[in-house]
# Entry
Amino acid sequence: PACFQAVRAILSVTVFEGKVVEAIPIGLRGRLAPPEIFHEILEHRWYLSEQADRDVGTIAAANSYFETVLLNAPDPLTAGTDGTGEFSRLLGP
# Structure
């Protein structure tokens, strides 16, 4: 039945999401929420696949995302410490 196929699809995405989240390099963890990273990897996969005119796969997309996108995402522990971020303006000198 269709309901079992839907449940199976949800479970397989959940398991795959967990594996992708586990693959996040330790130094980049915490920059974004894991579900947001997973969603962005799927979006990144779409963009890369469009450029390559073929499906590049989730593993290749995840590696590319970690190296090119997440690496440049602000680290929440240091964001705003250079005097130009929100925290610096809120806390003052």
